[in-house]
Task: structure prediction
Amino acid sequence: LNALQFRGDKVELGQQNACNTLSEGQNVLVNIAAAIAVVGKVAGTPDHRPGWIVFDEPTNGLDAEGCAQVAQYLGSLTIADVPCQIVISTFDTEFAEQLMSCAVLTAQRRVKHVSLPEFQPGHAVTPIVRERIPNPVV
Result:
C-alpha cells in the first residue's frame, strides 16, 4: 500500500490501475488514507477549515491485525495532524476501545464514547456517554 499513488480518480500501483486488484480491506485502508490526505490538504487553506471528519465503520473488511493498525493510526492523529474533530461510528467494541486508548494516551485527544442500549419497543433510548480526558502534561 505504501507504493500506491493517487492520480485524479485513479489509484495506481506502478503504471497500472490498482482499484480492481485491491482486497476489500486494502480498499478500506486506501479510503482512510485518502480522507486524511484531503483533510490535511484543505486544513491549511483560509477559505476552508474542516470542522470534523467522519468515518463510518472504518474496519469493514479488515482482519484483527488491520483493525488494530487502523485504531493505532487514527488514534495517534494529533490536532496538528488533523486540526478537526474526528467522528467514528462502529459496532466493533474492541476496535473502539483500542482507538480511544490510543487517542487519549498517544495523541492527547479528548474522547467521548457514545453508546446506545439495546432497542426495546416502547422504551426510550437514552445514549450512554463516557468521556476520557488526557492527563495534563506537567
The longest helix spans residues 24-42. Helices lie at 24-42, 64-75, 93-105.
